[in-house]
Amino acid sequence: MRFRTAISNVGLLHKITRSLAALARSCVIRLSPEQVHFIVPGNESSTGVQVWSQVKVSTLFDAYKIESNANNEIWLELHLDSLLKVLRSADSSVGSVNESRNTASLTESDVTLKLNKKGQQPIWAFEIRGYTAQRKPMSITHEIPVKILSPKRQAELNEPLCPQPDIHVVLPNLLELRNIVSRLSHVADDVKVSANHDGTLELTAKSSRVNLTTTWKNLSVPTATSNDDSNPPPPPNQMFTTSVSIKGLLKFLTSHLVGGTAIACICEDHCLIAYVYIGELNEAGGVLTFFIPAKMTDD
Amino acid sequence: MANQNSPVLLAETNDVRPFARLLRGIGLKHNAVMEITDAGFAVTVEEVRTLCAIAWVPTNLFTSFVYNPPSNPATFEISLDALLQCLNIFGNAGAASATTGNSAGRSKRRWAGEGEAGGGEEEADEYSGNGRKGKEKRTGMVMKWEGEGHDLNVLLTDDMRGPTTTCELRTLEPEELMNAQFDQDDMALYLIMKSEWFRDALFDLPPSCTRITLLATPPKEPVPQVQPEATISSNGRHRHRAEVGQFKILAEGDFGITELDYPNDKEVLDKFDCQEKVKFSYHSSHFTLLHRALHQSVKICLQIEKSGFLCVQIMMPLGEGVPVGGHSGILEFKMHALEEAD
């Protein structure tokens, strides 16, 4: 089992990790020759939000080498906190974060990542090579323990099954959305997310004191790619609704850091699926998929 | 008789901030009683028998204000918290967005409807990228009330592009209000000063004090005895103050007494009416409630009845085009004096 790569986009990896760290303490990373999958299974986060994402190797890494006797795939699990600490240091050394207060960091660095073994403990070793403020070359190595997943555990991790979504809608700016949703969180615990084929998106929070509905209009609605024309298209003004916990929705919205286009799918009374695209839609550098389970409400 | 079809109230504005600012000033309880009149809103919050806070919201804060008086007085109780949260749904009417760079003096205590705004703001700052780009963004509002038994509907729009929010606030039967009236004819002290000075004074009071004493001496009092250990200038100051009269705020904390003197000089007190010596104490927690109300205000008017009943009126800066004698919102706090402790 060998794994070694240079990290070409430390900033992006940092942002992805930050988004995931908002959800769970640890995450599963599945490395394959073409893709890197970041997985947060449902039991990891308190709100039941799951993440199943795939990012192209070339989006994050360079000089990527992977070998194993299981289809050249490696599954490992690590603590997001420790990964986050390493990436913060690496990110400031690469210079993609403009934190001038951190004068101790290196500049013009290259970051490489290796899978090593320390005694019996497998580790991820990050090596940051750069220059100090005095222009002296220096390298910093961070090691974080990882857990290699057995094939049995791998088989237990399954992407949730969802019915055909009722509607897709392109979400407004995630940061703006997050700010509004975080204010709704003081009104109620759950929010009703509804959308129709006219491009209307509604968030409704209800409490004994007030009903709040925030509406967006004229959002684009990507046409369904499925080919079964057996069902006639629904009337454009028919709302499809699912209730989710605001906490869970907020956790997904932390991914505004990644900063791409996001599309939400509503499976009525089942779940809300959100795809956050990395980079431009057509480049498809990768996509983070968030499953937010529906909460059943009385009405 | 009002037209059956037209709503009792239809008010519109293109900037909710002055309205939200006034409401936040009295945000000391969850619920408030709102009364609609031709002159605007009177929003009252009462802390059982001890403190009464009223926000007078004039119609000039709205671009249009149509009131069709129903047969019964248009009075109802609503959740003030919820209303404030609604007004700030787009983040343009929060405590922080109204601040004019005076965050150093932000009080630690959280008020109804403030905590979340503050919290959200901090979070947004953490990822300060495009979060605060909309400095000039305004939230517009259309408020509508169909009449008794109906919800209060508030439609908020973040102008330019973007989403709209509708809020349906439950209206309740109003709670019985004490609202003791201040008797202008029985006045012992009447003074007007810059609210900034009053606010600074409140900041300086020891946090551990439980009672705050207001003291006023009329002009031409006998000069106090010369303190042998005091400096000449301080004795001179005492003499001068006895001559012109002064207002004094006194608070005793765990570590000593704080005393703030305001001599009756033109640049200190705009107006000072005091016939005989006045001394009353008030609960300090009620004064802390004044803090937030003083935020962004311009002048305060402090009146004390002979019985010790205190009425503080806080005036907000005048908006454009407000006629002479009009106002852009006044907050009024009324409280009774504490029993004199010996």
Automatic annotation (TrEMBL), chain A:
Keywords: Nucleus. SUPFAM superfamilies: DNA clamp. Pfam families: Hus1. InterPro entries: DNA_clamp_sf, HUS1, HUS1/Mec3. It is found in: Nucleus. It comes from the Eukaryota. Belongs to the HUS1 family. This is Checkpoint protein. It comes from Kwoniella shivajii.
TrEMBL record, chain B:
Residues 97-137 are annotated as: Disordered. It is found in: Nucleus. InterPro entries: DNA_clamp_sf, Rad1_Rec1_Rad17. It holds the Pfam family Rad1. Keywords: DNA damage, DNA repair, Nucleus. Its main location: nucleus. Gene3D superfamilies: 3.70.10.10. The keyword RNA-binding does not apply. Belongs to the rad1 family. This is Cell cycle checkpoint protein. It comes from Kwoniella shivajii.
